[in-house]
Each structure stands twice: as structure tokens, then as C-alpha cells.
Design a protein that fits this description.
Length: 209
């Protein structure tokens, strides 16, 4: 059963009046609306959703990242209910899917957005509330560059420690130096050849035996 986001939002405003939470509409046929939560209030909102007896959102199944270089496109996917000014710059977004297993309700979709895509990329970790977020937050940190403050073990999980950049960002450019590819082939091979040492010349210099 789909959650009633209108009613849940009212409950949140009543219980956490200082928390900045707004509903976002999904314009697609699924009608899977979401709640946009200010990062500084994310942990408190999750705790309320989990611990309130008649809400009981006890399971976090998915945590995913999205890169929005163009903030207007984000508002087209998750439409604000009221006319609000668009973000001044691009940002990274983390999307959470919560379920109330005993009531068979879900997913309740939460969104949290960073201040920008450069230095303001911090979002609090929800691992203290949902342990299932631990590896998923590490994956988002690795591939998108979101820094989850308070995470118990925030480090890369797919790329090697020395790897630079974040491969799932939309402006990521794959390098043509595949030094970690042991058997390059096809298009990878053509790029790798640019970094192979030049073959020694077989031509003998004039006058030499």
C-alpha cells in the first residue's frame, strides 16, 4: 500500500515544527510522491518515522544518489507544490526508500540535497537510525562524492583508494589511461595504445654493420 504523504507531512510538521520538510509531486503515472528534507533535519525525521508507533517505518531498503548539474531538471522530476525559486546551482541528491513492514506500507520516499556539487556536499548519515544504509552510503560517497557526516566507516567501496573523481557524476570523463586494465580490448585497447611506449626502430643507421 502506498503511504499517504500528505498525512505524514502533517504529522511531521506537528511533531517537529522546526524541521524543514516539503512534499514533492511525481508528475509521472506512478504518482510516487516524496518528501524533501533539509539535511540538518534528516536524522530526526527518520527517527520519528521509525519510532512513532502508528507509522513504524522500520525498514530502509534503498539509498541511491543522483547528480543534478541543472537544478531545474530536478524540480521537473520532483515538482514543488508551491512556486519556489530554483536552486542557484547544481547539487547532489540522496533518495531513501522506507517501508513499514508490519503495516505493509511503502515505499515512503525521502530526498535530501547537498548545498552544491563542489565543497558543500555533506549530508548526515542515517546509519544510526537504519543500519542498512551503511554500505549504500559508502557506495554513494564513492561514486557521487556525497560526504555522509557521522558515518562509522566512510571510505570507498567499489573504486580503489587512490582513485580520483566520482564515476557516476554526469560530468565525469573516463580516462584513456587504463593502467589498471590487465587485458584491454576493443575501445579500451585503442585508448590504452596511446600510452604504450613507442616500439624500437628496426632500421639500421647508415654506415653501421
Amino acid at each position: 500500500m502506498m503511504p499517504e504523504t500528505d498525512a505524514i507531512l502533517s504529522r511531521l510538521h506537528a511533531a517537529l515544527p522546526a524541521a524543514a520538510v516539503a512534499q514533492r509531486r511525481n508528475p509521472g503515472p506512478s504518482g510516487q510522491h516524496s518528501l524533501l528534507v533539509a539535511p540538518e533535519h534528516l536524522v530526526a525525521v527518520c527517527q520519528f518515522l521509525r519510532d512513532t508507533p502508528d507509522l513504524d517505518f522500520d525498514l530502509l531498503t534503498n539509498v541511491t544518489g543522483v547528480d543534478w548539474p541543472d537544478p531545474a531538471k530536478a524540480d521537473a522530476v520532483a515538482v514543488p507544490l508551491e512556486e519556489t525559486p530554483a536552486a542557484a546551482c547544481g547539487f547532489l541528491e540522496v533518495v531513501y526508500h522506507l517501508y513499514a513492514t508490519t503495516r505493509r506500507v511503502g515505499p515512503l520516499v525521502l530526498r535530501a540535497r547537498t548545498a552544491d556539487r563542489a565543497t558543500g556536499v555533506q549530508i548526515p548519515s542515517v546509519v544510526p537510525v537504519y543500519r542498512s544504509a551503511e554500505f549504500q552510503e559508502r557506495e554513494i560517497y564513492d561514486l557521487f562524492g556525497v560526504v555522509f557526516t557521522g558515518h562509522p566507516d566512510l571510505r570507498r567501496i567499489l573504486m580503489w583508494d587512490e582513485f580520483e573523481d566520482h564515476p557516476m557524476r554526469k560530468d565525469y570523463v573516463a580516462p584513456d589511461d587504463y593502467q589498471y586494465e590487465p587485458t584491454p580490448h576493443d575501445a579500451v585497447l585503442e585508448k590504452a595504445k596511446l600510452h604504450y611506449p613507442a616500439p624500437a626502430s628496426d632500421n639500421k643507421s647508415p654506415g653501421l654493420c
